[in-house]
Amino acid sequence: MNDLKSEKSPYLLQHASNPVNWFPWGDKALAAARQANKPIFISIGYSTCHWCHVMAHESFENQHIAGLLNKDFIAIKVDREERPDIDTTYMQACQLMTGQGGWPLNLFLCPDGKPFYAFTYLPPQRSGQSPGFSEVIEKVAKIWHTQPDNLIEAGRRLSKALQEQENEVIKTQPEETIIIAALTTYQESFDSEYGGFGQAPKFPQPHNASFLLRSAARKGSKLAADMALHTLKSIANGGITDQLGGGLHRYSVDHNWLVPHFEKMLYDQALIGAAYLDAWHYTGEEFFRNACNAVLGYCLKELQHQEGGFFCGEDADSEGAEGTFYLWTIEQLASLLTAEELQVITAYYQVSPHGQFEGKNIFHRKTELQDIASDLQISLNQTTTYLNQAAKKLLDQRNKRPRPHLDDKILTGWNGLMISILARAGAAYGNEHFLKAALRAVEFVCKRLFPDGKLLRRYRDADSSISAFHEDYAFFIFGLIDLFLVTAQHKYLDLAIALQERCNQLFRSTDGGYYDSEREFISGIGRGRSKQDGAIPAAASVTAHNLIRMGRLTDNSGMEKDAEILLQQQLSHAGRYPTAFAFSLQALDLLLAEKMTLLIVIDEKEKRLSQPWQTVVNQFRPHLLTLVTAHPDELKGKLTLAEHKQAINNQTTAWLCTGSFCLDPVTEPAELEKLLCHYAPLNTFSR
Predict the structure, then answer these.
(1) Is-contact 656 672, C-beta < 8 A?
(2) For the whole model, what pTM was predicted?
(3) Rounded distance, CA 443 to CA 365, Å?
(4) 644, exposed or middle or buried, with CB in 10 Å at 0-12, 13-18, 19+?
(5) Rounded Cα–Cα distance for residues 273 and 297 (Å)
(6) What pairs with residue 117 in β-bridges?
(7) What secondary structure does DSSP assign to 160-174, as a single string?
(8) H-state helical runs in 430-556
(9) Closest by alpha carbon to 419, among 448, 436, 441, 444?
(10) What is the DSSP string of 2-38?
(11) What span, in angstroms and rounded, lies between the C-alpha atoms of 235 and 385?
């Protein structure tokens, strides 16, 4: 066992028995490199990463390669999910050197931690034009022994480039023209047949759909709505979605969302759930409600810790191969199902004798159940019964298979995203189970990851560790704001504001931007200032959104101004590359919308809004901040919005506030709808 044996990260523990003499990142490893004057080999990945597993089996378990590394290098393993600061900085270095990135991310560093050579996956031996990993190790070692100054100079130059990139600030005025340019660019890259943007591989990036729906609602762009809804339907019907068990796979290797990379990540579930919920608000279609429920149901069943927090995700691999857990041969189906069930499920999930992935089938949908019933000349009810019976049998059988590895770390930031969607969906659907899950997740973070008033990033196996990054603050605050809006419990807004103040102290720069980390992990390499929204939104994008909402809720114009200053630094390339700035564009869309809040006071005897009121509230108005409470007195002195507000004659009463004044209260949902149609008109095309 090497020095990883005492770590908590599942990824590091996967490598604890490698013959490579791995160190975890820290003072011990860096001191060893300096004292021995050896370069560092650093390998960064995560425990559910397929190609990380491949390289581990081929190279890191290889005695010859381990001997080469142990002889001439200090080897360090990093879990990118625990240390996003290290991962992001070295990924930028890799992209500067090679023009591409990915995981496993491998670099050679000078003893002081400055990078001079980077690559992703390599086979152990040369394969065609690709050099072998062992060959690269030997060449780097030779150069270090004969010409170390060349590598040291390369590390110095690259570190300088990283700092220059971090310090470059291009300010752009947050204006409507950016959104107009973005919509044009979306249209140019839109796949009108299958949905999504660009070519394969296709990543869901659900915040693109959420931005497009927001833009459609505020600006009346039917094209924006069509792009979002078509993309979300294609994803929900595709093989990228686990049709049996729920949940979204990582990405699609093809352009039509059929063959996925099978790992499932918590942040993908939270973001696609939010996009489905937005689409349901926008269209009222049960399709999107069912899609959202399926995602959240998977998370509650498979990713929830017994105390309420949520785990990071599940691996793509099981039984030594990718996707095995999810795939079916037609022979397997025939052995489990009746003839009628087999007929329905093969038609509904597009099953064929040859399959779509190494002779096996990936369940996906192209045909409506009504059409299958018509083709088979049976009733829709009977068809539905056959489908449900078959799905239950297959899911029961699948659950007997060895499950993919579960990464059971719990990260503050990713849990913040889950808290947000669970709170929103719980309120919209009247689902107490979702709302209770959001409350339990907040309790978990506060108990396990917020000891002594210091926010931490990671909990696993009774151990809380690693100071929180900007991402953790931003995402957790985001969830707290949504939880406040659906519960009206001021403690959540109070905590969000307190955490934002601490976030400003730790991460805000003098020019109004935000660093990713509290300090440099290596002197002279920077603290990171992520601007692009990738699979996970940039922390600064989410913070801009948070500042606008908290500012409007508390009448703090300074917060909204801070958000505007921040967005000036985030949006310089958003018009030309909107898919990389979708969450920043959502924040811009909110900033440009008129300030509008809605307070609804219900009678103390009522637990929730009655259905007629809920129907009005559920209409898609993402720019309207809505608060429902039976106890407005608890908000007095804290929110101007709640001052002098009481239910009239024990009836549900609503106040729509726009700008600096509130309109006269109304006590009928139809009256509220009239006000909203006048002051916050709906621009939807599907209802």
Answers:
(1) yes
(2) 0.96
(3) 39
(4) exposed
(5) 10
(6) 108
(7) HHHHHHHH-------
(8) 432-448, 470-487, 490-507, 539-554
(9) 441
(10) -GGGG---HHHHHTTTSSS-EEESSHHHHHHHHHHT-
(11) 25
In tens, the pLDDT along 262-280 reads: 999 999 999 999 999 999 9
Pairwise CA distance, residues 204 & 190, whole Å: 13
Q: Which residues of the chain have pLDDT under 70?
A: 684-687
Q: Which residues contact 402 (CB under 8 A, 6 or more apart)?
A: 318, 319, 325
Q: Which residues is 128 bridged to in the sheet?
A: none
Return the residue matching tokens 């095995």: 324
pLDDT for residue 685: 60
Taking each continuous run of H as one helix and of E as one strand, the counts in the chain are 25, 18
What is d(CA 579, CA 234) in angstroms, rounded to the nearest whole number?
18
Task: Give the per-residue pLDDT at 500.
Answer: 98
Sole residue written with tokens 């009121």: 613
Q: Which two tokens stand for residue 192?
A: 């009108």
The alpha-helical segments, DSSP class H, found in 337-379 are 339-348, 369-376
Which of left, alpha, beta for 113 (phi over 0: left; psi -120 to 50: alpha)? left
Enumerate the β-bridge partners of residue 75: 22, 41
**What per-residue confidence (pLDDT) applies to 687?**
45
491's CB contacts (< 8 A; 6+ apart) are none
Phi, psi of 653 (to 5 degrees): -135, 135
